[in-house]
Design a protein that fits this description.
Layout: H1 2-16, E1 18-25, E2 30-37, E3 48-55, E4 71-81, E5 88-101, E6 104-108, E7 111-118, E8 127-136, E9 141-143, E10 145-160, E11 163-176, E12 182-194
Antiparallel strand pairs: 1-2, 1-12, 2-3, 3-4, 4-5, 5-6, 5-7, 6-9, 7-8, 8-10, 10-11, 11-12
Length: about 200
C-alpha cells in the first residue's frame, strides 16, 4: 500500500507542476511529502504552497502507541527569502493532521514556522540547514486530541541541481485528552526533488 502511495505522489507531480516531492526513511518509518507551487498553477501567489504528507505508523518506533495508524496531513504555507539575509527563507503555515491512536480518532490544526538557510560554505555543492516548528493547543485539537507539537531539523546537500539528499531528526507529539503520546521520535535519511 505504501509503495502505491509514494508512486502516486511521484506520478502526480508532473501533472500538477509540483514544486517538490520528498521521501524520508529509517529502519522503522517511511514518509512522503508533496508540495505544489501555487505560482506555477496560474495563481498570483508565487510564494504560496499547498501540500500533503504521509508518515507510516505501521512499524513506528514510538514506545507509547501499540499499533499506530499512518499520520495524514494537508498543508498551506507562504515562504519567501528574508531581505538582507543572504540564503535565508522563512515560511508561515497551517496544517491539518489526522490519525488513529490505539483506535481513537485524532485530529489537529497546528500553526507553525519553517526556515531554510543555504550555508555560506565554499564547497562544490550547496548545503542547506532547515527546520520547522508546528503547534496546536487544545482549542485547535479535535476528536480525542488534546495538542499537537512537531519539531524538525535537517541538513541537506544538493549534488545535482534540483535534487537533494540529507539527514534529519523529527519529534511529533500527538497528545490525547487521556494521556501524552509521542507519535514519532526519529532520525531519518531523505531525498527531495524540485521541479
Amino acid at each position: 500500500m505504501l509503495k502505491k502511495i509514494i508512486l502516486t505522489l511521484m506520478v502526480s507531480t508532473s501533472a500538477f507542476a509540483a514544486h517538490q516531492v520528498s521521501v524520508n526513511v529509517n529502519d522503522k518509518d517511511v514518509g512522503g511529502e508533496l508540495r505544489l507551487d501555487m505560482g506555477r498553477m496560474g495563481n498570483a501567489m508565487s510564494n504560496a504552497y499547498i501540500g500533503a504528507r504521509f508518515l507510516s505508523g505501521d512499524n513506528n518506533n514510538s514506545q507509547t502507541i501499540n499499533d499506530p495508524d499512518p499520520l495524514m496531513e494537508v498543508s498551506f504555507m507562504v515562504m519567501e527569502p528574508v531581505r538582507g539575509v543572504s540564503g535565508l527563507k522563512l515560511g508561515l503555515g497551517v496544517k491539518g493532521e489526522y490519525t488513529k491512536i490505539d483506535g481513537e480518532n485524532y485530529a489537529a490544526i497546528p500553526l507553525g514556522i519553517e526556515a531554510e538557510l543555504q550555508l555560506p560554505l565554499n564547497t562544490p555543492f550547496p548545503f542547506y540547514l532547515n527546520g520547522a516548528f508546528y503547534y496546536a493547543p487544545s482549542v485547535l485539537s479535535f476528536k480525542k486530541g488534546d495538542s499537537y507539537t512537531e519539531s524538525r531539523i535537517g541538513l541537506d546537500i544538493e549534488p545535482i541541481q534540483n535534487a537533494r539528499i540529507g539527514v534529519g531528526y523529527r519529534l511529533i507529539d500527538t497528545d490525547l485528552t487521556s494521556r501524552n503520546v509521542t507519535y514519532n521520535d526519529a532520525w531519518y535519511f531523505g531525498m527531495r526533488l524540485d521541479f
